Amino acid sequence: MNVTLSNGKVLPIEMHKIKIVQKTTLPPASRRLQAMEEAGYNTFLLRTKDVFLDMLTDSGTNAMSDNQLAAMMQADDAYAGSESFFKLADAVKDVLGFRFVIPAHQGRAAEHLLAKALVKPGDVVLMNYHFTTSKAHIDLAGGRVQELFGKDALETASSNPFKGNIDLDRMEATIREVGVEHIPYVRMEATTNLIGGQPFSMQNLRAVKAKADAHGIPLVFDGSLISEQAYFIQQRDPEFAHASIQQVITEMMKNVDIFYMSGRKSTAVRGGLIATNSQKFYDLILPFLPVYEGFATYGGMSTKEVEAMAVGMREMTEQSVASSAADFIKYFVDRLVEEGLPAVTPAGGLACHIDAQKFLPHLPQSVYPAGALAAAVYLTSGVRGMERGTISTDRDAQGNDTLADVELLRLAFPRRLYTLSHIEYTVDRLKWLFAHREMVGGLKFIQEPQVLRFFFGRLGPVERDWGKELTTAFQKDFGMDC
To answer: Which is the catalytic residue, given 222, 327, 355, 394?
Structure first.
């Protein structure tokens, strides 16, 4: 939650006590350069022993609560009919209002099941914005994605509180153009990961649902960040200013036919699920579960995780939990804006995002500025973020890069994991890097997978060894051991 200090400054306060700690280290700049070269300038391929602050993702990296850890010790390890599953099913019914639950080992597994069951070759899935794995599963099923974001969704410096909205006119035009028979569902992502974790409004969700219903198209809700989505509606929409997080979630779920989530985010557990009140959709999806995941009462998760997710499902409706990451991310973004750095505004869910094209205006998209910035940030701070730009897209059928709509560096902020001192340290190093940004050069692929290349691809400097030059300049200012 936020508190106002006597000097008028608003400060996010941790609403938890730290009782168990995990040691981290800050490798010297010389080791960071060596580690980056070994990783092929891809932060995904760094070893955690070489990372100081791991802001790669908020997926599966959050701090669990004491109640979640305790629940894991009560797990029923039965292959079929586990009582742990029924605790999760009860939590889903109480919190989300759905009576059918299909567990999966994580969010992309749920996306795989949905694509297998619902997407046919030639189909078009409408959505506010794609996520890498959601698009990949739809593509592999022979379909394609059509994004329907609004005209200002890609403006990184903005005051629009709901940049995740679907453009209703574009939606109607696309339905007429494609044909209802080729649209298996409309997907609303809460919050839109690839454009800065931006939420959509309740009014937009209601309007999208009404339009989808008018055409007989189901609405699928990606609720991986449902807790933060509800918090943003509560904070930014006067209609819900006095509503609880649970009340906002309940209102959202009235507009949903199929819900799915990665539990690794809002529920802080390494798992996922699909939920619905439709017998038809449940019967369509369930047969694929034992083929690709596991039995209906564990779905690829350990029963310990199932127990912890049941607890996390309820805890994510608490005000202090829903606001925990969002408030710190806003503080992070506000500090960068104060220092004149191009952070994405308004602050969204999951991460602080930086506009790499504004940070590194001398680098064209063809040399992957977001990837270069991610590497440069690690070299000068030991902070591991990740690229969310052109590297995160795949090449087209002709082998050409598909240029991303925006080039972002994502600095994820896992829930209840880091403190204000970690933010201030990162801001300081970003400020130094921004002053020396001309030293950062572009990247090129050395090894490139065909699908989801950002995970395993290896890159290197386009021309000069700018990583070494940047490290030398950093050591000159901060010392050899920093």
So the answer is: 222
Active site residue 79: yes
Q: Torsions phi, psi of 11, nearest 5?
A: -130, 130
Q: Give the CATH number, domain containing residue 34.
A: 3.90.1150.10
Average pLDDT rounded to a whole number, residues 78-99: 97
CATH number at residue 300: 3.40.640.10
> Are 335 and 281 in a shared domain?
no
pTM, 2 dp: 0.95
* Residue 437 among the catalytic residues: no
231 and 369 in a single domain? The answer is no
| Residue in 32, 265, 270, 415 annotated catalytic | 265
**Whether residue 327 sits in one domain with residue 371:** yes
Q: pLDDT band at residue 226, thresholds of 50, 70 and 90?
A: very high
- pLDDT digit string (tens) for 388-409? 999 999 899 899 999 999 999 9
Q: Is 282 a catalytic residue?
A: no
**Domain housing 446:** 2-58+321-478
Residue 368 catalytic?
no
